[in-house]
Amino acid sequence: MSEYTAIGGEEESFEEMFASSFDFAFTPPRRGEIREATILQIDEREIIVDLGAKQDGIVPSQDLERMDDDFRASLESGANVPVYVVNPRDQNDNLIVSINMGLQRYDWEKARELLKSQDAVDVKVSGYNKGGALVRWNRLEGFIPGSHLVSVRLSADRREAMSELIGNTLSVKIIEVDQDRRRLIFSEREAQREWRARRKAQLLAELNVGDVVKGVVTGIRDFGAFVNIGGADGLIHVSELAWHRVDHPRDILQIGQEIEVFVLNLDRQTNRIALSRKRLLSDPWDDAQFRYHEGQLVEGYVTNVVDFGAFVALEDGLEGLLHLSEMGDGALKEPYSYVQKGDHMSLRISHLEPEKRRVGFTQRWGTEADQPESPNQDVEDVGLA
Questions:
Q1: Neighbour count for residue 85 (Cβ, 10 Å)
Q2: How many whole angstroms separate alpha carbon 228 and alpha carbon 114?
Q3: Does the pLDDT value for residue 366 go beyond 60?
Q4: What residue spans define the domains of the chain?
Q5: Range of lowest pLDDT (8-17, 216-225, 296-305, 360-369)
Q6: What is the pLDDT of residue 156?
């Protein structure tokens, strides 16, 4: 019986066993495959690596030139590196591999991990096209669609704005990874949204109701204005913009305006910050009874016109009603053709109720002698000029 016997009783020669063992361990390199390799030799123009094949692999000079200088300097004989099989056999029967393309495998794996974790990363803008910004992350090329860019607004001067972005580092999130199509999509908008949320949570922990802080108006809506107070937005409701009636926030504020605001409320569960502007202004009703009296001639401006009259605010913000029956000679049927929002008017105080925060105005003068000769008559006497 032979010295070498296979399981099951079938005899097998030493040569057959060696051949089958070798065939099992060795798989010829295939184009596009990534293998672990050991650096055998580093020359100025190439690197020789052992990747478990019948012949050593060659990392050509073109691949060395693409390497980061610091990374290339760190390579040494005996180090293990991933290599990408570029060509199993070129015209000179050489096995050509790429360390750069092998390292990209790890970047794709990391990209998939970041897609799941949604952690932010930094990318460098390398160019742009009509759709957005071209960026580089580690050894991969990526793309930020224009709709996901925050650092530049795609307006009429888009080309100039995008070219100024080249070379800048942006904080982004990965939103799509497709290694087969070499498609890597980032979003600066999503990263900014998360940063603002974290910053808002931090502000909520630091702020207290009653604090006075500086901010910049970032948005205006019908219901109020958003103000950035150090990386997070708070809302000034339209009712907190001024002591008088405000028809629309744009009548008081404009985007980009720097203002001081009063922290009105903090909701740490919903991460909402309520702000006030009027709390930093003097309440005109506090001393209204000392500055005004019935029959006093004043000047004001129309803040709103309604079917039954017009609301008029004095220069200090005190606001009251000029009823339709008190307009002109009192015979008007509707106010819209007589007065408009923003009109300046000379009026008399018909009644004053500071305790109820009410004031009424009239244009119906008692006698001809009571009528003012000019809009400013008596204004200096009441301290409103």
A1: 22
A2: 29
A3: no
A4: 31-103, 118-191, 207-280, 288-382
A5: 8-17
A6: 52
